[in-house]
Known about the structure:
By secondary structure, the chain is of the alpha/beta class. Helices cover about 30% and strands about 25% of the residues. Strand 13 (about 260) and strand 14 (about 270) form a beta hairpin. Bound molecules: FE2/S2 (inorganic) cluster. FE2/S2 (inorganic) cluster binds near residues 635, 664 and 690.
Amino acid sequence: MRIGILFCSCGGTISEKLDLKKVEDFAKTLEDVVIVETVDVFCENPDKILEKFKGKIDRFIFAGCSERSSLKMGEEKLSDLLERIGVNKAMIETVNLREQCAWIHDNIDGATRKAMDQLLMSYVKVKTNIPQGNVKLEKRALIVGAGVTGLRCASDLAKAGIETVIVERKPYIGGHTSMIPMLFQCEGYASMCTSECIVPVMGREIQKEGITLIMNAEIIDVEKDDGNFKVKIEKKAMPVDPAKCVSCGKCSEVCPVEIDNPFDFGLTKRKAIDKDFSLAMPDSYTIDLDSCNKCGECIKVCPTNAINLEAKDEIVEETFGAVVIATGFEGYDMNKFKKLNYSHPNVVTMLELERLIKNNFNGKVPESVVFVLCQKDEVGYCSKLCCPITAKLAFRLAVLYQSMDITVVYKNLRTYGRAFEEFRRKCEMQGVEFVNSEVEEIKVDGDTLLVVTEDENLEADLVIVADPLIPSAIRLMKMFGVKLDEYGFPIEFQPRIITPMETYVDRVYAAGMARSFKDIQESVESGSAAAMKVYEALKDGVKKLQKYVSMVNSDKCIGCGICRETCPHSAISVDENLKSKVNPGFCKGCGLCTSVCPTGAIQVMNFEDWQLLRQIDVAFTHAKPGEKRVLALLCYWCSYAAGDLMGRYGLKLPTNFRSIRVRCSASVSNWVILKAIMDKKVDAILVAGCPPKNCHHLYGNEMEDKRITSLRMIMPEIGLDENAVRWEYIGVGMWKKLANVLQKMCS
Ligand code: FES
């Protein structure tokens, strides 16, 4: 064991507040420490400074600024620098001499004693750490959904050299976009473009090497294996081989079976063998097997022998290193809103109106239409797009059918952005009437419909109801282990403001409308963003495992599966021998599994309970006799950062507290807390975690809150003072609250 220790005086800001020389001399006395260096400003020339350690050490302690909050030497940078001189990232520990020591105390003696203890805690830890390795990742991505989001994602990935497989449920690409004849650009500049251009352009973009398109297919099972996804794909029978079909249409001409075309909501007909629409891609005819009578006439006329009516479903298994879920949206079942009378043929949704316009209302153009907006109160959220789409559709109708009487009934009109607002203004200029009222009912009145509002009754030949958009991929997301909100949309990984593409499962990205409400341009942007994330994850074909990963002692595991159910990252499975198995490529080392394991079989590597206890054992080695010993166990993300901000903003605290940066607050078990108190190693313990709804592991903070509450309830029964343990929700910005709590506990 060869430990190197580097002290940085941070331009004197540390050394003027504590006796750094004394701490350095103490470091030199520690067993297995082979080099101790002190520099003035490490971040000025880190590579050169670390050269002195190269080849001489296998473990490293950096004592200076906070690895969590330093604006110049964050943990990732430090770990990259050390990797260059051959030190494994798990064999590095830091000592926060600046934010939570020198900057926060005005007592040189106390700060020096605390610095020595903090060094000792890192020293005992680094001696027990285990090096961490890599897992191999398949350098190929699965994209579920061939709408504009999935197409753009695949195209961008192909350009970056990452292989993709697109799985699409329908026989054509383009998703809902292909059903909308006229697309409106909606960022800064209001203009139009036709889907008959856009979708084929995007379709041609994916006709490149490295992209495989599997149509008529669904994901039926997902298994995680170390770092990869093993995915079972059910390919529905494809009686027409798209590779052979030349789209001549002879099969359709002789087909005797005519059915409603679902692409046009039954407004038009298609043959059992046909194309849903002329520009459908892949450019191949398809057979509706439910209606085909297998007469074989199509086979006789096919010039390329592309048809095989005996084709069967097939299941294939593929392995991927990353997944993009881009399944678009679904419309609400409008029959649930009885007052809207959706079962009436002249009450339609916005998408149905798109197809009606495309087919010129089958020659029966209505004289009056009423748009009915907003069911947000009923579904619990605003779908964001209904108002803008209504503005667009009303404008389009007004331009196409000048004499049409058009009214929009709304509750709160939200035409966000510049272009949609412009459509609204243009609507008004075209004579569209906007009525601010609540619709009470849509009644049938002879041949017309009556839209009954709070204020008036509006007659209409056709009523268009805005259908709320609902999640399209609940079953699929659950298969991948993605956590969903109360409505079924994926919850983004915290901090979600800066990781909007990521779910709680490593390398599963939700994009486009599968994530949240987006117009077409936003969906395409989201496809590109997902591609960038996939590229970043797969470019090297390996995932460097993080320092902290859970591991199972199978001798102790009883296969109860509680860890699997608790894991927010879907990283744990239970194998055929009924033993839990951690898939390390997905584990975030939060420690939630550890805290719920009834037999102590699962622990976080490099953050095991006994390691934490060993740190606690030495935490007050240099405390003055009789001094109250307060230990702050601060969660890795929010609370520890709040601790750093106390120092950065110049608050001054007593020197008798020590802090440890734990994993998620839930990683601190009651057993560790009790042992520390009963062994008289500490007098009081604070456990602090992220604010509610902000835990980086979803619900770890709430688990810990409940656990400590129940611990405090039993403490008096075993002769302990419950006030020795305290739980607090401390967000980054709550550093003043943390300081107040510590002040009280230290006194
Ligand atoms: Fe902060 Fe869970 S990560 S409490």
